[in-house]
User: Fold these one by one.
Assistant:
Number 1:
Amino acid sequence: MGGESGKMYRVVFQPDGRQGMAREGQTVLEVARELGVYIESICGGRQTCGKCRIRVANGRFDTYGLLSTTEHLSPPDAGEQACAERCGLAPDERLGCSARILGDVVIEIPEVSREKRQVIRKDVGSRTLRVNPAVRLYYVEVPEPALEESRGEWERVQEELATHFGLEGVQPDVTVLQEVQRSLREGKRGITLSVRQGREAIRVQPGYHEDIYGMAIDVGTTTMAGHLAHLRTGDVLATVSMMNPQVTYGEDIMSRIAYAMRHPEGRERLHQAILNGLNDLIRQATSDAGITPQDIVEVVLVGNTVMHHLFLGLDPTTLGTAPFTLAIQDAVDIKARDFGLDIAPGGNVHVLPCEAGHVGADNVAVLLAEAPHRVEGEIHLVIDVGTNGEILLGNRESMWVASSPTGPAFEGAQIRHGMRAAAGAIERVRLDPETLEVRFKVIGEARWNTEWPDNALDAFDITARRAGQKQRPTVVKARGICGSGIIEAVAELWRVGALDDSGRFVPGLADETPRFVPEGEKGAFILAWPHETATGQSIVVHSDDIRAVQLAKAALYTGTKLLMKRAGIEHVDRIKLAGGFGSYISPAHALMLGMIPDAALDRVVAVGNAAGDGALMALLDQDAREEARQLARWVTYVGTALEADFQEEFVAALHIPHRHDPFPHLASLLADAEPWRSQRRARVQRASARRSRRRRRRGHT
Amino acid sequence: MGGESGKMYRVVFQPDGRQGMAREGQTVLEVARELGVYIESICGGRQTCGKCRIRVANGRFDTYGLLSTTEHLSPPDAGEQACAERCGLAPDERLGCSARILGDVVIEIPEVSREKRQVIRKDVGSRTLRVNPAVRLYYVEVPEPALEESRGEWERVQEELATHFGLEGVQPDVTVLQEVQRSLREGKRGITLSVRQGREAIRVQPGYHEDIYGMAIDVGTTTMAGHLAHLRTGDVLATVSMMNPQVTYGEDIMSRIAYAMRHPEGRERLHQAILNGLNDLIRQATSDAGITPQDIVEVVLVGNTVMHHLFLGLDPTTLGTAPFTLAIQDAVDIKARDFGLDIAPGGNVHVLPCEAGHVGADNVAVLLAEAPHRVEGEIHLVIDVGTNGEILLGNRESMWVASSPTGPAFEGAQIRHGMRAAAGAIERVRLDPETLEVRFKVIGEARWNTEWPDNALDAFDITARRAGQKQRPTVVKARGICGSGIIEAVAELWRVGALDDSGRFVPGLADETPRFVPEGEKGAFILAWPHETATGQSIVVHSDDIRAVQLAKAALYTGTKLLMKRAGIEHVDRIKLAGGFGSYISPAHALMLGMIPDAALDRVVAVGNAAGDGALMALLDQDAREEARQLARWVTYVGTALEADFQEEFVAALHIPHRHDPFPHLASLLADAEPWRSQRRARVQRASARRSRRRRRRGHT
């Protein structure tokens, strides 16, 4: 088409400024392809998809000295007009596949038509995501074969891909080969191919399609969480999480390794458990989004090194003992069918690389999401809180990383009334310093418990709701405490002076409030009364739970401190608290607990599931995968647990906030509770004095 | 190593003459790698494998002006001496990995150490095979990881492959990743990798190994035949064949397509049947060779287009009706596990390309094996005899190809006592023109039946042999007739005048010999008496069998003739008869039957299973695969069955040798039988005259 007149015009593409000469009558899409400029198009110029939107930099002299006007393109024909209405083109937008060059012109490619475009997702921590997926859709129409045709259907599909999209020699996955004949028949010779990296057709569908989906999943030791995303638009259509089914084989990483070592079928059982879990999670997400697992063409997976090895079917036992050797550090690409995922049969699983024996692909994802390696000047500290905590420290000059065996307390496991961050989990807790009365907020319920209507019905109680009691308002009552809830509960108890610095309930608490139930040296504090819970049983924070939180926060603090020491850094400028287990961690409460180094509150920010978000970035943008590979090799791993002073530091860090370190920024957080706090803490000193006197008397007798 | 002295010497590698400068003290292997000269080595310079043999062009001035002497290499050290003994080095052979450069030197790389070397295989029709396999072995030793090592085991394996073999960035198949840790442990950090095309590790074994196997299989409509080969040495270790298990779903291609179309599960059943058959064949071959199917790392498959589609799981129905469209024409590479073959789990299946809707990968293999496309001047005709016959005609200028639905008669199917070419099958038949006595030879028995000892025991009769009759000599008695046997039997019956030109038994035959058993208009001729057969029943050639042979040979002849007509060729210089069903076809008998155009007997040659041999070539030499892809696109397909004059030609070709065409070269073949032949044929004329008279009389009354 075009070019017969022999006239040539200059065409400039914006924003990248690439330019060249075009023959009169060529379409903008054709010219773009010749100049190596990408304009999105699924149908390859058939006025079907409406994706190849362009604009003319109209009526002005360009920096290139061109007078570019809309008249330098052919006017919209009937086909374009129909498509414009159907696809909702803006008044100044044209279809690149039908607008023909009639004069010098500056063409602007809007963000939405660019190869690598930015979208901002509010549902993913308002992050800016780059959409440049590994798998793209191509619609082709293949003519009926002629009698003397000796080429196969696939060769003719290849020809269409080459002619309309410039893709040469695309190879078919075997499942595509097995389906291509039927698809051509059913699609009346029109098919949509999902092509990976411009090289391999991994799916074929009859007719025209423009939806293509992928999933990014963070496999944590305790929790698995995933985003389901549209690979063309970047839309996140569902965000789901569930318990890692491996939990039945052990709470933490070391117990999983032990299971794999001790049982002859252990490794395979763990592998199968995680596969089943992943398939369940994918089913859940696709069902939420109203699609099927077979609509997913790509999955990006991250996880700590043990999860990484177990979901890949690799032997994790070398990760359990020095020198903690990985089977592979680099990224891995595997056909979904070889991996065992029930997605599109030709689909792909991309596993991000690991950093070291103790720092896995999940931390690489945190790096991608928080990008401390792009920071100039300031020192950033990123703490990923999970059953296995990971700590990143540095900036674009250097990056140090450590891991810290936190235990599952922050994910609601090994806590008496702990639960996953799901509907009914207490996620926020506030204590009145005077009365010790409790306010809490539950996931799935917008109001604090103190705002619930008196006669509210339990949202979980199906029978009661069915029994004609519909007129009563419904409330999601408490079913347990999740990670952010337990952090706040313990921090609040300490803030009001109900806990001493060693984490023990102060004496005389039972006289002050019926919420405290003593139990020898220990005790429990009632957060939710029976009428506030879905189970009809009180929900408490027990001394043992407090101890678990202390162990966990001490592990994180010690890891951070030793990492800073090893890196020779005494002060950090910004602290990011990431956590892949649901609600955001409250920076104030993390500070009070001494989970992180002292800092002004405005320098601490909670960033949610950074690992999951980083995985999403790698799903949507194939360039991010290459960046991840480079980052994984670049960071410096520090084995903090092997440092000589770990044990001593750890014991000191068990105190709230710390036995030795000052936390000057805490003062303001404690101010409002100060009178009652001092009172209760004074009781500790008196009791302590009494104990000393008794000891002295015993010494005398 | 080396290079510290700073002295440089010229090194020339023969036979290809590549040369360059080497530092004093470098090993020959190192220098070769730097210059891009391939020298075989599995252990990468550890004096383990003894494969990197080289010779010094000793004591003479070379064309390069160099005086090259053995003293220009370091003398063999203890390691080389030990290896030389173990591996049987010739006196003038050195190990390239331990011989160091001490002066200018011309190094000769013997055939056995070259990347692409030639071997002549007597067991495969004395063909010259090129050994340049897609998969090669590499032995690496990976040091124990250090404590601060953050790279994974695989990255360190990669480093060894890069250092010792120049292979960069080898990617692991997932099964290799899953096994590499255990292999390193069991092999005490030494492992042997099978690497495909220098890019992908598809198998890992603990310790040092030097054996690597593949299979080449020709899947025919009726018979499947395969070679098991050593991919390093080119040795053929087993040659096996079996009935295609799809035969139960239909005798020929069209009935298979019909089955796939008519039954909802038809295509899948046919697919599964062929997979089971392939796995059985591989088990049989590996068991014969004393290895296991998991030792096979690559399989090359060929077959006609319908077999090709069915074993790939593609829809064959488009091949049944015009325009006979292939799903894919090009070569296909598939992981064995995706294909469904039980070989090494990371292994590969390479399927040669097809030529057109009716000419498949088997014919491409015939092209590779017979190479008519390399012939200059002469015109070659290659006929591949099978249930679906294929005909190649031409030379390096042009190549025409046609297919011809021969039917399964030549493979021993649809013949009363037909059988596959296996032990007990009558493969050779001779008739005494005077007495009509029969001599025959059976597969698995070296002697003709007339040479069998009188008291011979049937080799198949296990019970008789067990019953203390071991002192009696054993003979493999007849169990049926295979393709080459039925061709000879019918041709011989015609040669001696027992059959007339229309294929009917001549009158009065029953009076001449008790071997003829009349049956109305038809009859049967006894080839083997009950005492000569394993079953104790006579083996006969029936009128219906003769008719099947006539139909089959007429299809081949007509196809050939129409192809010659279309190509404008009147005379061929050489005829090759290929057949993938066991024994070689006798050119003389093929000529007598009129299966091929008339030719001097010395211009006709039987080449056996050319398709299977071509597949073997593609298995051993990856360059042959590229050649196959080019050939497949290059040949010109002629749809002979669609030619207007097919039917008329076919009817004329049913006669023996032909109703119209002269076969002057036949005279000499018939000379010795002439007296008796004339006598018997005269009876036909008399009988014919009698019949005419009777008809006339009836006409009168």
Number 2:
Amino acid sequence: MVSTKPYLLRAIYQWCVDQGLTPYIAVLVDAETSVPAQYVKEGQITLNISPEAAHQLIMGDDLITCSARFGGVAQSLSIPVGNVSAIYARENGHGMAFEVVEAARQSAGQEETGDEPTPPEPTSPTDKSSGSRSHLTRIK
Amino acid sequence: MVSTKPYLLRAIYQWCVDQGLTPYIAVLVDAETSVPAQYVKEGQITLNISPEAAHQLIMGDDLITCSARFGGVAQSLSIPVGNVSAIYARENGHGMAFEVVEAARQSAGQEETGDEPTPPEPTSPTDKSSGSRSHLTRIK
């Protein structure tokens, strides 16, 4: 049975777009995620999945895929729904947080990079959560 | 700005229908709700809003409306989104709970009826929540 999570991710995404807000997702990076490594920090990456930033976005029941530009270069992104730890509006932090699957959590520590992200689209999830954690409700 | 709540209600509804489960909503009854009074218990009513039970269902941003049969008689229901305290699948209790708006909460006590519901569609929300509360995550 499909969990409620992909439905909730799509719901918050649509809410953001309808309200003119910018949907961001926080992703726990592991071997199953395909994201630009130079923007991964502490095993996580935050991605702008607004229609302006993410093209050919498909928010499926198991996988989120899109194409996005990083430093002027288009990259294909692939993110298992289980790796998404939050979705929220950049402008006000409203959204939802999720417990990430254990497999993603365990391998996340191995993916850390020391690079400081200077992203056009992604932002540090730690910057975000300190200001807006109170808006997020953890779903188990 | 529209809250995330109507988006989340629609998401859980669609999840239920896609999984072959029966979506129920728990509603705090007040002057703004139009539901059959004989099935209201302790200021609340639980309604089956599956496609089989609720016809012409519209889950709007502000209002949920549909037509449903009670004791063989079709009735038009109108429920402000703010009065919905939970949406969940009858079969397994999975879904979401919400803080109801203060106005609905305050007036709910005035709407109590002592009738025992013997509903074809609605069930007592207290029967449900005792067994499945752990599945519901309260959204503020």
Number 3:
Amino acid sequence: MARVVQKFGGSSVADADSIKRVAKRIATTRQAGHEVVVVISAMGDTTDELMDLALEVSPQPAPRELDMLLTSGERMSAALLAMAIGDQGLTARSFTGSQAGVITTGTHGNARIIDITPGRIVSALESGDVVIVAGFQGVSQDTKDITTIGRGGSDTTAVALAASLGADYCEIYTDVDGVFTADPRIAPNARRIPKISYEEMLEMAACGAKILHLRCVEYARREHVPVHVRSSFTTQEGTWVTDLEEGTEMEQAIISGIAQDTNEAKITIVGVPDRVGEAARIFEAISSIEVNIDMIVQNVSAVSTGRTDISFTLPKTDGKAAIDTLNALKESVGFEDLLYDDQIGKVSVVGVGMRSHPGVTAKFFASLADAEVNIEMISTSEIRISVVVDQDDVNRAVRAAHTAFGLDTEGEAVVYAGTGR
Amino acid sequence: MARVVQKFGGSSVADADSIKRVAKRIATTRQAGHEVVVVISAMGDTTDELMDLALEVSPQPAPRELDMLLTSGERMSAALLAMAIGDQGLTARSFTGSQAGVITTGTHGNARIIDITPGRIVSALESGDVVIVAGFQGVSQDTKDITTIGRGGSDTTAVALAASLGADYCEIYTDVDGVFTADPRIAPNARRIPKISYEEMLEMAACGAKILHLRCVEYARREHVPVHVRSSFTTQEGTWVTDLEEGTEMEQAIISGIAQDTNEAKITIVGVPDRVGEAARIFEAISSIEVNIDMIVQNVSAVSTGRTDISFTLPKTDGKAAIDTLNALKESVGFEDLLYDDQIGKVSVVGVGMRSHPGVTAKFFASLADAEVNIEMISTSEIRISVVVDQDDVNRAVRAAHTAFGLDTEGEAVVYAGTGR
């Protein structure tokens, strides 16, 4: 008998019929003898609809009140799901994030989970109940106000609950069959990855893969919670995200997966005087407007001019704010020009195997050259290589790398030396 | 500067525009320097829609979960209203019933308020906030589960809050201008009552007047909270429900108002043997199925037969259950027949003045006779006379009494010896 936390997203409880279908699935797990805690999102587009309603009432809704409003969505789906499970001959009880003991910071709209005190949940589990927890929400440690946990909130809640309950694993149910070696809409040969390490999943998420949120994966890694990302439409195995098994690095496939991101723009500050502190001033200014910078590239200054170019990437949505901030610095820093390019894309190959296999960079760059993709910027970590390319070349680059690293067909790539999970 | 509790119903916050309109009204009160607590119902038909959704998911929704679901409605309107008031240049904060300290029994769907511990509300008021409280809900003292307070819940919450906060008065905003001397749709000459005592309002509510719920009036009477029932569409004075001023009984109008109720049915048990205990057995059986009996009439038994007839009225919706229960007793009690009539109506004249004025019963019955209305049953209290008549005669009876007691025109009835409120 296992203790399991399951998370279902809004599309899987979009209406009464879906709720009943999910209830049957949850009941099956409980009837197999497992203890089950379900974290649930709001039905369908409810959160967006509530947001629209708020904007109809107030152009800038007060954050505390917005959280009070938005959390109604998860409350409703949790209650309805509990009703439906009750009809399966089981007992089920729903809890708000607050009742479940999800304690957070006070930042409305983007609260961080500080701790979880799941006393009431444990009591309910011990009574034999299926427990339903409203996702995406908690209670502020300081003010006791209801908070929402920001993007990926329900996934993160599920993993955090799993950790605090000592659950055996956490299942994230979604629309797709698991994590794929590349986005199947771009690389038709992309395959489901049976097992991927936390580190690799972190890189995939940071580099554009949308299947799991960064915060959720980081939480799972820190607390060593095995996460099973799987489809809510089938009973097939999905992708297990877990610790890397000791000593298996040599047997890892070189590349586990490829991610792409077309939400970034590139800013190049041309002709920055090569004086101590100029780069620091530039990036202090950017960080003061709370823009998240991704890749930074600076070459050595040209001997002839004593100047250098600095390029960095950032979310497109922050582009204007960054340009405005930098323009204000032009006089004082004395750079020559400011270039803005939002027609870029980032392509990343991820794999723990690259730590033990030489030549990955060369192979990657060769595949891009063969596909006639020009590389504009390069950034690497121990287990990831990212390149910035023209936005129109992204898909071709993904497919080229997917083929080059043997991910196209089952036979060529040895994903794991051992058997699959 | 006063401390005021205001309650607004669902129709006054049916959409974004209504919410903004109510927000302006509330802001005006706050800006006049008063401390304001607002109890709010769910928007428009939200509660009904949530109920429909529950029934789509489960034919018999678990009561605990139904309360969790339904309370989302008030949560949403409270948050939206707080946002809108915030846009008026004030600070406003919304609270759930639980956060507001509304402690109740554990009966889901019909919880009773045990106590209110409004600590957080008082702090918010002292900070200068307008406080918005989600109506219709509280938290169970025993289980800490969210509960809904049953019919009239928001009105009762408002009055209970007013009592616990030591508020100067409680305003109940509604669709009509106040409490009327009779239902204006039946008696076109009906007028707004400027001031009515708690006792009279209790009788009016018990006898069919729908403007305020019985529980709410009882709470107000017990805690001596002045209640102002007024229209949310105008700024005119409505009806004040308060204690009767000492020593003013002689000056009271004989009749304050007339109520009618067409939701009852009459059951007559014919030929009950006149033995000790038979009536008791009959009414024990009825009460065991939790049917609320209203009027009971039993005449002395006929000397010749040693039997008597017993009639009583009850809600039409309980009719079948009562008939079935009584039929099961037919053998053991030995009555002769069971008659059921759901084409009845109850008409009641209410007024503290009748304690000090003789002849009220005679005047009432004379007016009914003149209108050719036959009286089937009679029931009285110190300040109320009720008659059961044929349902088709109800409206005529109401108008006849309204005229007979001088309520038709401003000039004839001296409502209060002093000036209006």
Number 4:
Amino acid sequence: MADWQIIDGGLTAPKGFQAAGITAGLKPSGAPDLALVVSDVDAIAAGVFTTSQVRAACVDYCQARLEDKTAARAILCNAGQANACTGQQGWEDAIATANAAAKALGIDANQVLLASTGVIGQRIRLDRLLAGIPNLVAKLSADGSDAAAQAIVTTDLVTKSFALETQIDGRPVRVGGIAKGSGMIHPNMATMLAFITCDAAVSSHLWQEMVGRAANQSFNQITVDGDTSTNDALIALANGESRTPAITAAGPQADKLEAMLTAVCVHLAKCIARDGEGATCLLEVTVTGAPSDAAARKIARTVAGSSLVKSAIFGRDPNWGRIAGAAGRAGIPFDQNNLRIQLGDILLMEQGQPQPFDRLVAHDYLKQQSALSSQAMAAQIFSSTEQGNDLIADTAGSLISRQEAALEALAHPVQIAIAVGAGTGQGVAWGCDLSYDYVKINAEYTT
Amino acid sequence: MADWQIIDGGLTAPKGFQAAGITAGLKPSGAPDLALVVSDVDAIAAGVFTTSQVRAACVDYCQARLEDKTAARAILCNAGQANACTGQQGWEDAIATANAAAKALGIDANQVLLASTGVIGQRIRLDRLLAGIPNLVAKLSADGSDAAAQAIVTTDLVTKSFALETQIDGRPVRVGGIAKGSGMIHPNMATMLAFITCDAAVSSHLWQEMVGRAANQSFNQITVDGDTSTNDALIALANGESRTPAITAAGPQADKLEAMLTAVCVHLAKCIARDGEGATCLLEVTVTGAPSDAAARKIARTVAGSSLVKSAIFGRDPNWGRIAGAAGRAGIPFDQNNLRIQLGDILLMEQGQPQPFDRLVAHDYLKQQSALSSQAMAAQIFSSTEQGNDLIADTAGSLISRQEAALEALAHPVQIAIAVGAGTGQGVAWGCDLSYDYVKINAEYTT
């Protein structure tokens, strides 16, 4: 049982963090494109980065930095240009941005971590970014999470933000975060950008372990299109400003903190999957009975990432054959005569055999989950635009808060439950359906 | 240098083979749905089958049969019902069909191999299949390849057939084949149905090795949507009716036969990729400079299978960033500073850096390759329908043969050439673009 509560404030909900987001002129659209999060004091820093051989300069920079020193004060993130495949010049640009942020903040350059997102092969518009730094620093505030969340998005429809609070030794401890990502989302590392803040006091070794495990159960379990980005990064800062006793070893308090950290990561990961390019619903695949948790997670990812399954979900088609097919090719041995598949409450397959079910009821389940989730997404988009939006003006969008809408959008996943045997391994993965709009968005992105 | 020539006749081009295809009433559409190929004498049989944990009864049947006995006389294939996830009853149905075919042919049941394709979870309409067997056997002929090729397709737009002839010891030796498949196509085994005939005399051990290696360079190198089927099978029969000396060990003659076998498999594999659901072009990804051929093939497959790359190709967008991104996540280590990417003749990236290129020229290259290939596909469809087709009546379709059109459709691939370093490993993979129609076809398939 989770003994924490949802709180407002996102990235700046934990004590001792400020954030800001501004328009520096990096995106052609003129939307906000430069974000900064700063801890008042040195924070323990941990990161999980893309496993791709083709990495952005900021990823190499952060990895080198974190190997060298596990504390940091700030994360600077630009959207618009990925600074990937930009060679030595990209590396120098990265250093220049870190130096500029450090100077404006009055800290050492090696206390600044970096992230970028946008078009691969494009250098950051350095002059604009550098010119924007003073304004960005001036805007830093303890209410700045939303502005930062807005400044890191690209093709995202909605911003992603979340925070939880629990008690440790009778004092509040918080974990907050923001994330972005809607295409090029696939397991194999952090698979998008996510920045996590925490005001617990925790040892750096333990924090890195917690962050790694949390990533494996959240960001590494979402898939939109099977593509891993050059820039994927999860960076998590823990600054100790909750003034709770330092957590330096495994135990109930470490478990409590890790569980809350994982819950924040899972929420943000699900937000990303739900906002998958062209998606009309959130897909949640649960696998049980596998030889190990890792095996279960792999089967779940494979099903959630299957183009055939995703197309069927978009077509509101309870096509259990494709689910069985995807589970079978995940590379995890199991006896097909033990396979059990359930869609929502509807049993589709048992002991490897299709079961009679009401196809119309299953179709309606798929339709309804998508409709409820889409309505909440529309409300979220509505509540985040000042002008509103004609397309969703007739929904109840304005009656609920953005936070409520965000939770509501995740509250109606299409649930596929798969059992593969008598093992104890279990795992969950999240994805979305594959729609015409995915193709449209990705056929027309750069040119 | 290939010292063989393209010949007519497909599956029945090699000596001593007959084939037939009929409508048994298995497909709701009323299209042909039952195929048979028979060797006049015992043939050495080799197979490569799906690696999925969820396998159709026919796959289990063939694997068991081939472990037991490496000779066979016939392959019976039905389309319409996959006979996968049909449990014990499906297994019994498979045996019943083998028995019926054997009886009508006057051979032993264990000389019959089986294949099925169609909707997963559906039993074969056994009464109709059994009722069709006498007619099917009566139709067997040395001209029956096209009829068989027609009877095994499902969502395919065109049939796939090919044959080559070479000389061994001054006598002609032939390899022919037919294939089907257009969705659920992805490396990891044979990934579709393909039946190969050969009139060389070859030892069973050598033949199985040759077929396995040929599959790895052809059918295992194509990807349409990343999904592996429950029914994928490549079955190859060699009956010795060329009366050439038996090939029983490695050497120039074995090499010659294997090269020709591989060429037939590659041709059929490319036909499948080109006919990928919703595809408008054939994508050919060549990788060089990798640590090994297997590593190169893996990178090539990953790029050819990337949804982002495929969407970009459909959008006629020379998005080298996505190509680099996909190459980077293939799981093969390389130094990104050695990465070189070429699209057709256009250099997009060198030493990991984007190169200046004329975006319009690149766009036109993509558009032109697709247009030329699509025109040939249309001609092929036109020439295979008696009534013609309004949509393509104004092309030059009727002026070329179906074989010429099939070759022409493959003659204009979108070529992506990637070099990753100084290694000697090289490999090729084939795929297609990702279009709105892929989603449409797969969102609406069963319900």
